[in-house]
Structures are given as C-alpha cells and as structure tokens.
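Mods, move this if it's the wrong board.
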Amino acid sequence: MHDHSHKQEEIRTDRPKIFLVGNPNVGKSAIFGLLTGRYVVVSNYPGTTVEITRGEMEIHKEKLLVVDTPGVNSLVPMSEDEKVTRDILLEEQPRAVIQVIDAKNTKRALFLTLQLIEMGVPLVLDLNMKDEALNRGIEINDFRLSNIFGVEVVSTIAVQKKGISSLKKTTAQPKVSHYKFSYDPNIEEHIKKIEPLLPLSNISKRSIAIMILSGDKTLKNWLLKNVSTEKINLIESLRDSAAEKYSMQLSYIISEQRLKIVDGIAGEVLTKAATEKKGISRFFGEITTHPVWGIPFLVLIIYLMYEFVGRFGAKVLVDYLEKVVFGEYLNPWAGKIVTSLIPVQILQELLIGPYGIVTMALTYAIAIILPITATFFIAFSIMEDSGYLPRLAAMLNKIFQTMGLNGKAVLPMVLGLGCDTMATLTTRILDTKKERIIVTLLLALGVPCSAQLGVVLGMFGKQPVEALLVWIFMLIIVMLFVGFIAARIIPGQRTDFILELPPIRMPQFSNVLLKTLNRIEWYLKEAVPLFILGTVILFIAEKLKILLFLQDAASPLIVNVLGLPAKATESFIMGFLRRDYGAAGLFALQEQGLLNTEQVVVSLATITLFIPCIANLFMIIKERGLKAALAIAGFVFPFSFLVGGLLHRFLLWIKIFN
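Not the wrong board. Structure tokens:
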C-alpha cells in the first residue's frame, strides 16, 4: 500500500502502543498528526482493504507507537472499518486508548465510551473541537465527567494545536475506569453464564459476552480459534435463550439500555447555554440541509462552479494558454529548435507533428486541461473546507435510497468529481459489499472526473445553456435508472444513514491553497506521463495505419449510431487511456468547428458514460476483483453507446438545437 515514510524502518511495532479511537469526523487524524509529527506509515490491516496509520511519539524520553484506528459508531461491528477497530482492541495490548470526542456531539460519543469502559482498557477522553461546542452554547463539565468515569479528560482544539501537550502527558499514566453500570436482570444473568466459558484476552470477558449477546457474527472466527466447539454451542444456546424474552432484537434492547445510561450522564455533564450564537454559519448550516431551500442552494453552487470552472477556467485561461502561450510562443519555438537540432523527419513528427509530444500531449495536458483542473480543484477544496459536502450527503439521502444506497454514498460520488480512481478507493467507507459494488458501478458509468468535467464545462461554456441542461438531465436519469436496477439485481442489504454534520465554516485560504497545490502536483505527476504515452500510442497507431483501421471499424458506430464525424473515434480510443484526454480531443474538434451543438451534447454524453480510464479499471480490479471489473466494463461500454444513440435520435426528433 502507500508508504508515506522516509523512516519506515525506524517505526518499530514492538513499542508500547497508544490507540486513537473515535466516531468518524471527530478530528482523530488531526490529533494523530500533532502527536506523531511527520513520519507515518500507512498500511492495510491484515486480510482487509482498510488502511491503518501508525506513527511514533516520544514522552519522557520513551518512544511510543501511535495507531490511528478507523472511525466507528459502535464496537459491535456493522462495517469492515468497525471490525478492524474492534479487532485491534481485541488482539493488541495498549498502553492507553485515547477516545477522541467531537465536543459538539459528546452525547453520541458517550455510547462508544461505555463500550470502551466495558472492555476494561486504560482510557483517556479527549474532548476535541471545544471551541465549536462553545460557539453552539454547549458547555461540558470536564471535571464532573472525569469524576464519573475515573479517567483523565483533556480538552483540545486540533486545528489550533491547543491542548496537545496536556494530552501527551495523560497518556503516560492512563487509568482503567471504575465506572460500573448494568443491564436488565435477564441480560446480566446471561452475561454471568457466558463469561466463564470465554478465554482471557486483551479486553474483558464481560465486553465479549455483551458482543455475543448483541448478535456479533464477526466474533465467530476469534471464538473458533480460542474456544472449544462444545463451549461455542453452549454460548450460542445461552444467547438464544436470552433473546427469547424480548419481542425486539437483543442488540436493539442492549443499545436502548446503553442510551438510557448515556442520557443520564449527559444530563449531569452537559449544559446548553440560553444564548446560542446564531450567526451566519448557523443560517447557512440550516439552509444547506433544508429539504426545500437546499435544492436552490445546490443549483447556485453548481452555477457558480460552472461560471468559475467552465467560463473562467475553460474560456479565459485556456484561450490564453492555448492561443498565446503555446500558440504564439512555445509551439513555434519548439518547432524551430526541433527542426534545427533533429534532422530525422520521423522524430520531428513525434515531437511536433499532428500527434506530437509537444504539439499534442503537452498542449492538451498543460494548456487545455491544467487551467480547467486547477480551477475545479480550487472550487472543490472550498466546498470541502466549508463543511458543505456532508450536508449535501444528508440532503440527497432520500434520492440515494431509491438506488439501494444511503447519503454516505454522496461522498465517494462527489470525490469522483475529483478523480474516479481515488473515489473507487474511498467506497471502503460504505458499510456493505452491495453498496460498494453499486457505487463503484455508478462511478465508472456516470461520474466525470475533475479533468474531464472541466473540459466538459469548458465545451458547454461555448454552447447555449440548454445544451448543459440536457447533459445534466440525461446523466441524472441514467444514474437513477442504473442505480435503481442495480439495487434490485445485486444481492445484499442496505444500511442506515449515520453521518456527522460539521458546522459550516469559512474556508481557510492556506488550507485551500495547500490542497489545490497538492492536487495539481498529483495531476502533473499522474496525468502528464499518461498524456505523453497516449500521444505516442496515437502516433504509432497513425504511422502503422491502425488508427485509420480503427476509425473505419468504429465509424459505423460513431457516425451512424451517434451521428458524429469519424475523426471523433480517436477521442473515444484516447478516452480509455485517460478520460480527460478523450474529452480534450472533442474540445479540439469543437474549436475546429467540426461539431455542432447537438453533436457536442451527444459526444459528451457518450464519453461521460464511456468506459472508465485505464487507471480506474485497475483500481476496480484491485478493490472489487477481476470478475466484477469485467462485468462493470462489459456493461458500461455498450450501454454508453446505446444511451448516446438514443439521445442523438431524440435530439434530432425534438429539433431543440436546430
């Protein structure tokens, strides 16, 4: 997997361990970064696709290993992430477990605290984002909380680096909580019967007994390794007899009883001030998730992005770079230098011909795609930093339910607008295999990556606005249709939607700049070599007349079905090497006046739905397996041409652009 370390060999796994545990989006990674500094190793947890980050910190001249576990809502696992966190606690002995808590949502975090206390691990509670809690008028009595549980409670504000030294100090001598709480007599009786049948481990027998009663199937392998078959049968019959007493599932009953205890503790330690800061962020926070006003707000965001990326990036910046920088200076200079230094004609053509590395690959990559990608990255970073993306997920949850998904799926989908390859990787945040497959399919089918989207917006920037609306409407219909059908065909169930909504914040200029620069650097390293490779392939294909052959072979499809010029064929071939490269080819055809409005809409609709780029295909194979990847590609390829052909006929019939 990734290795972000220059000193990987120095990170020793035999050192005393500190585990960071917490709900998703509580700032765990930020705390981890502040505790460990720069040198970290990211690797997959054995037997899973879940990534674990490890790093080192030093206290009183002793080096400790800090492990950042995946965000969880419960330690009775519902997803692979939750299973990994639970397994780490089960298999490894920590010096301390730091539970990072979003202070605005202390009540939700206490549900997890009770489970950690049941496990009997040495615990430290870190109330992070204390400033945001105070802004909302939420006051937490740290001293009272510390007394109730008998463990250290520290307040931090990770983004301002506050409270980190106090947090470090508390990990030197963490305490095991003395807090005791019980369930109803029937559950307690069965816990006591199961406990003696369990082996010693790093967490208490009581907590394992409660997991078993909660119906935790993921413990099965651990039990098979550590407990005899007779004892397992006995444990399972005890679990069944405990469950018989209730009309609801036992896991629900246990959760309900825990929540009652949480309510009691929250009542003692939380006070909500009467004067809550309303403020502008509160106003935006409410509007962005509103079922009615949220939609016009989303339309406004899309419009602003269209203006910034499609008009400013793709028109103003591209025109300047393509026509002035490359057209008037770089390409003519390159022409002079190459012809004077390299007498061999074929090499001259390779560098500055119609399929030349300078004249085609670099012009496409730097003059056409880079300004569009850069403006998109800026817009995306602002949305990310402002806290709008999780709100979008909450607002679109209902729509996603029709596709057998929940609002969580919005996040990989929105990331897909950055890069589908990266987004396919982030489908790991989804709870079930079914959801991961559906989102991978939809990403491959209809989510254009930033570079492709930028070019698409750039092309529509030069067309009437109806053209863009037809394209958006077509994409939405296709995605809903395919998602709806996939949800019915692919086996498995959907999970409930739980997502933390951070407050709406003013994006920090330095953060936006840093994210944008990192992404541009990634784009240059990732994309430019592929553009050059693609151009060389096109060059060779043209010289060997393969391009002509492919154009002839595919032209009935391109010309007769889609109604496009035969020259568009090479854009589709290149689109497989890199999505934006294909779109850039269409951009060039539009610039040359070879595509009318109707052809622009049809070609962009088809290439957006077209097979994902080669890098994404490899990622799908890695994440979902070869069989699923081939099935997805086998569906997407003909389907995109079918939709393109139908759209072409439809647009000719209604004569909207004539």
